[in-house]
Amino acid sequence: MKTGARALGVAESYRSDAARSTLAGAVVRADRVVDGFAVDSCTVGGTDATETVVALADRLAREDVAYLLFAGIAPAWYNLIDLHRLHTAVDRPVLLISFEASPGLEPALHEAFAGDALESRLETYRAQPPRRRLSVNDETVFVRSVGLADDEAADVVRAFTPEGGRPEPLRVARLVARAADAWQAMDGGTLDTAN
Question: Which HAMAP family has this protein been placed in (predicted)?
Answer without folding.
Answer: UPF0215
